[in-house]
Amino acid sequence: RAKDAGRGVFRTYEPELHVQAEERRVLELALRTAVENGEMHLEYQPVVDAEAGQLRGFEALLRWKSPEFGTIPPSKFIPLAEDARLIAPIGDWVLRTACAEAAKWPSDIRIAVNVSANQLQNPGFLTTIASALSNAGLSPERLELEVTESVFLHEGLGVTRVLDRLLGLGVHLSLDDFGTGYSSLGYLSRTRFSSIKIDRSFIHDAAKGVREAVAIVRAVIALAESLDMATTAEGVETAAEHKMVQEFGCTMAQGYYFGRPMSVTDARALVNRRWKASAAA
Ligand code: C2E
Ligand code: MG
Ligand code: MG
Ligand code: MG
Q: Which residues does the UniProt record annotate as the domain EAL (predicted)?
């Protein structure tokens, strides 16, 4: 009987775990060949200056469309790629593709690329950046690398030194999703970030009038200003949110209100029109 009960428990819990592990295994396998099979592409989301709404650059966002599994969101496949040590080769492709595209735009338009902690820990990463830039013929100051606070979780691995060497190449660094991670502010004094990207949860709550969120957004902007860093408001979806961000004195803004992540063709058209949010609104 005890044996039966045991088996019952086994049967109740195991299949679910099994499916999760199986799904991961199968997705990971498909992920291994996704780039070479041409299943990945980039979308580009406009970044504008908060004051005038003028286009300043784009953030490259990775998309995976698997013939077998359909469209899989980055929130699902990026962590998988990180665990499976696939983020370095995939990230290389992202960097090369994004730099090559940006080289076709006017020189005042920047490209921002997301970089995972694992990529920074890869000893070949500096070479990857340098060769992506030189192959594309893109000057370094037009490339911005976005990292999250999580890269500082393992300071022992020399992250600050890697970031310094990246700065030495002339690229910009920005701190992504600010406020959602482990808010030890020490690294802000050790690394010369060009910009702090304030996570969209704060922008959203602050625009709704949530007192704590307002206080945090204001404090982050003041902090950034005193450190000579710009701020980017993420996830601006409405005119009211844009207005708030302007009033607070954010430097840049990004969000569905200004433009969703778009195809490379649409991004080029936008660049050519020298699009302004004010004209679109
Ligand atoms: P992220 O770097 O913070 O990128 C911004 C995310 O917010 C994107 O989600 C974008 O589509 C979404 N977003 C932009 N504006 C709005 C808005 O107004 N409202 C709402 N609700 N969402 C908005 P996406 O494309 O799903 O990417 C999710 C995350 O996946 C990114 O967050 C980034 O951390 C990661 N990721 C994407 N591409 C790459 C990549 O090439 N390499 C690495 N390492 N990570 C990537
Ligand atoms: Mg980002
Ligand atoms: Mg972000
Ligand atoms: Mg975010």
A: 24-275
pLDDT of 82 > 50? The answer is yes
pLDDT of the residue at 280: 52
* 108: phi then psi, degrees, rounded to nearest 5: -95, 5
Ligand 1 mutation target, pool 31, 59, 61, 241, most atoms within 8 A of CB? 61
ipTM of the complex: 0.98
Mean pLDDT of the chain: 90
Q: What pTM was estimated for this model as a whole?
A: 0.92
CB atoms within 10 A of CB 273: 11
Name which residue leads in pLDDT, 114 or 281: 114
> How far from 138 is each of 62, 100, 196, 249, 271, CA to CA, in Å?
20, 8, 23, 30, 17
How far is 233 from 190, CA to CA, in rounded Å? 23
- CA dist 60 to 150, 217, 240, Å? 20, 25, 26
Ligand 1 pocket, Cβ-based, cut-off 6 angstroms: 45, 61-62, 73-75, 78, 91, 94, 114-116, 146, 176-177, 200, 235-237, 254-256, 261
CA of 18 to the centre of ligand 4 (A): 30
Instruction: Please state, as a whole number, how many other Cβ atoms lie within 10 Å of the Cβ of residue 44.
Output: 27
Q: Pick the residue whose CA is nearest to atom 45 on ligand 1.
A: 114
The pLDDT, as a whole number, for residue 218 is 97
Tens of pLDDT, residue by residue over 175-202, are: 999 988 776 678 888 899 999 999 999 9
